[in-house]
Amino acid sequence: MKRSHHCSELSKNDAGSTVQLCGWVDSVRDHGGILFVDLRDREGLTQIVLDPANQELEAQFGSIKPESVIAVSGEVRERIGDTVNASLATGAIEVHAQRLEILNVSKTPPFPMDDSADKVGEDLRMTYRYLDLRRTRNLDILRLRHRTSQAIRNFMDEEAFIEVETPMLFKSTPEGAREFLVPSRMNPGAFYALPQSPQQYKQMLMVAGVERYYQLARCFRDEDLRSDRQPEFTQLDIELSFIDREDMYALIEGLMKRVWNDVLGVDLETPFLRMSYFDAMNRFGVDKPDMRFGMELQDCGEVFANSGFKVFSGALQSGGAVKAFNAKGLADLTQGELRNLEDAAKSLGAKGLAFIKCEGGEWKSPILKFLSEEEKAGLGKLLDVEDGDIVFFAATEWEQACSILGRVRLDAAQLLVKRELLTIDPSDYKFLWVIEFPLMLFDEEAVRFVASHHPFTAPVAEDLSLLDSDPKKVRGQHYDLVLNGVELGGGSIRIHQPQIQKKVFEDVLKIDPEVVESRFGYMLKAFEYGAPPHGGIAFGLDRMVTILAQRQSIRDVIAFPKNQKGQEMMTSSPGIATDKQLRDLHIRCAPPKS
RNA sequence: GGGGUAGUAGCUCAGUUGGUUAGAGCGCCGGCCUGUCACGCCGGAGGCCGCGGGUUCGAGUCCCGUCUAUCCCGCCA
User: Fold this and answer.
1) Distance B61 C1' – A116 CA (angstroms)
2) Burial A517-556 (b: 16+ CB within 10 A, else e)
């Protein structure tokens, strides 16, 4: 029996016609005589009626369980009076079964198949991921992801981009994330590495004259997982020649506009806001600020310049900063909530979390006794302190002080949301370009500079001379696209002159020349054969879809995600290799650490 | 590697200051029911209270350890 319609399609106009439907038994309502079946397929739900006059059908149906697969042939009839179900798209009709095929009988599912399953333990849902995905809500996410990719492909095609596939079997790169290694059977002792991103290949495509490249590329990073991080994930990877940063901003704003319009029907405002890395840190305490709410960090350096409170004045005297922000209306926070905020601050290296709250017109704080009247007045004015407010402080080196309060700001915002004093709307899309990152960061552990983005990022032209004298001051031509506190993507204009690239590798990053030659020699060579100026960007597609679908976890928008240990529960991967496999691969396993 | 939270029926959860035989809703099984649409009604089964120790006359409850999941820090050029 072949289907003639999907379960979403039939209406009054089809009354009288004979149709064939197939799908899953969503629910059964047996009234002893008459029996109703809700039949579900990926498009919708249609009520099937088994008439008591047809005893044969009823016997065949038996006590068939939900989630069994059946095919039904029958006559479409209009429902009359109060048998119409207004809350169902196909509620104006029903199909009176004449013939029935039972295609597959289902066992009772281990968890409910309705929306209440959203609360079921994730490990169980992942073990039975095929059932979890079968739920309409999750099928809709797969569809939304498909529409997102489709919008991207259409846009990129119209903008004259060429989609090129790059190798999955690459080689190890010395910097960056830990990689997955793949042993080479034909080259004993040698290993491929799965790509962290197609970075180097896409730059070679620019040298090759492709000019405009994109790819929905799978990437791999063997780092610890988070709710927004999976060991394999998908990037929208883009690279163009003969462009500058402004061209890139305009292109990507057009892309986002298109995606949001095609997927959600939302019209985004462009151009997007721009903010320097310094301002982002200084005002919001993160390099990916959530612009949907304020509570900006203030600099209290002037207020406490000559303070008798050693914690504050000491920080200022040693070149640090005193930062603060006002969590408006949060003065009534509980001891536990305060302790959680303090713990969050401490996890970023704070010694404690100083605060002042204002209740009943009175300021209350353990540090109040250290502050002069002028300082209190200055604070009150700077931070607009009113009754019911609480102000948090951080006094240490500037960047750390900002980071600490940046974290406290986010946590405090959640507490305010819980109290309904603050609304953070998931369908309010506040895009932001974060720009002018430092090209290099000093790694205290390794005692050397590391690239803040990656070593192929071009310095801002006027900072080029600082590469030798003061690498920390060099700004990179790097940009991040941030949406509602999430880093959606980032990229840069690249270095395309071999001598500058070599200098960055060897003189600034202090990578051994032999290592540079073995890892990047081909690239330096390529740059000697007419490399065009170029730049690119890459977006986390999974993160983008997570926001579009208004979900909390990246796992919700990946068909078969991995748990926090990197295992895929349904198939129990990874698995143990056999001795023969290992022999072929020239690998011997060390005994596990006890 | 570190910190937080959780683990009681198939699922989601409750379980009082330690005290009879550990409960509820949904699901499941059986019965009844010809207009339901989360159908209804009646009856029933189902528990190593994550695991291992300990304290106690007595532990789901207190203590120690451990495992699992998840969130966060480190890490993620």
Assistant:
1) 29
2) eebbeebeebbeeebebbbbbbbbbbbbbbbbbebeebbb
